[in-house]
Specification:
This protein is mainly alpha-helical. The protein has three domains: about 10-105, Orthogonal Bundle (Annexin V, domain 1); about 110-235, Flagellar motor switch protein FliG, alpha-alpha superhelical domain (Annexin V, domain 1, Orthogonal Bundle); about 240-320, Orthogonal Bundle (Annexin V, domain 1), CATH 1.10.220.30. Helix content is about 65%, strand content about 0%. It is built from 20 helices and no strands.
């Protein structure tokens, strides 16, 4: 390797390999990844510069002897990345990922937080003004933000959630200033900036991923301070009991993605209505086996039940985002 050639990390190598395979093959591979993995690879692909033929060949040899030698990358990556991401995730779902990867690749501070451990993020922002914390959490993915919030002082959590709910976007310049401040505290990966952060829906999404006891405590205190705001947040939250409003086609799609072990745990803490909803959308034999497994299952911790329910809800939200199911109830259009 020459002195001009920069050593490639594992993510960079994966990006080089995908780009050497071509759009159709890369798209098929990325369909099996979650959005965070796709975004991480997209960032790496967007930032590949002056990759030499030798480096490409080394990567190809390392991962697969079947891939032939390719030329260097670095010119015209944006169209390629956009095409692959849309093919892998669909137009709607890919748009936000594309924006984060391509529109703000010079923004490092905020983007770096996405790949950090929640406890580490909490430690970095815990002494900041609650409004700054609210902006940061709004920028993170809901499940990540929920873990960060859970590691912040309990007394501060309701105030932060209310600030998130009342946040009506952030001026790009202000977001860039925040990004610069964070960048001075640590070095991070390239990423993106966006002004459309915060709002009641963001607050609801974050709370959906909180532990049930924390979620209840926060909502109780928010209700005491602003009952209307609390109701607005509650209206947008989707909890396990709401699965009863998902149409049968949606339940069947969801069940194909859920493991039997997780389903058994989740139903241990569910009411009879939810159980019957699940049973009726399974084959007779499968329903009978599930009933038997539930009866044979001994006592389980409440925390285990809540974790299983959160896992299933996470899958349901992913399917809803991809358009495979609707969480809005059974009042949708009929299919023939």
């Amino acid at each position: 390797m020459s002195e001009e050639e920069k050593a490639l990390g594992w993510t960079d190598k994966a990006a080089v390999l995908l780009m050497s395979l071509g759009e159709s093959q890369s798209t098929e591979i990325m369909k099996h990844m979650n959005p965070k993995e796709v975004q991480r690879l997209g960032v790496a692909m967007a930032n590949l510069k002056n990759v030499s033929k030798n480096q490409v060949q080394e990567v190809v040899d390392e991962f697969s002897n079947a891939v032939s030698e390719q030329t260097g990358f670095g010119v015209g990556n944006d169209d390629y990345i956009r095409s692959v991401l849309v093919g892998a995730l669909g137009e709607d779902k890919a748009s936000s990922v594309i924006d984060r990867i391509l529109l703000g690749r010079n923004s490092k501070g905020l983007e770096a937080l996405k790949w950090m451990d929640p406890k580490q993020v909490a430690e970095i922002i815990r002494l900041e003004h609650p409004q700054i914390i609210a902006i940061v959490l709004s920028y993170l993915e809901p499940d990540h933000a929920a873990e960060v919030l859970g590691n912040l002082p309990t007394r501060a959590q309701p105030d932060i959630v209310m600030r998130i709910a009342n946040l009506d976007g952030v001026q790009p310049r202000a977001l860039q200033e925040l990004d610069d401040i964070l960048e001075k505290q640590f070095s991070g990966n390239t990423g993106a900036k966006t002004s459309s952060v915060g709002g009641v829906k963001d607050a609801a999404n974050i709370l959906n991923f909180m532990e049930t006891s924390m979620e209840a405590n926060i909502m109780e205190q928010v209700t005491e301070t602003d009952e209307d705001l609390a109701q607005n947040i509650q209206d947008l939250m989707f909890v396990f009991d709401n699965l009863i409003d998902v149409d049968d086609r949606g339940i069947q799609t969801l069940l194909r993605e859920v493991s039997t072990d997780s389903l058994i745990l989740a139903l241990k803490g569910a009411d009879d209505g939810i159980k019957e909803k699940i049973f009726k959308n399974m084959s007779k034999r499968a329903a009978e086996m599930l009933r038997d497994d539930l009866e044979a299952k001994g006592p389980v911790r409440v925390s285990e039940v809540e974790a299983a329910q959160k896992e299933i809800l996470s899958i349901a939200r992913r399917l809803a985002e991809s358009g495979d199911i609707s969480l809005g109830g059974s009042g949708g259009e009929e299919f023939v």
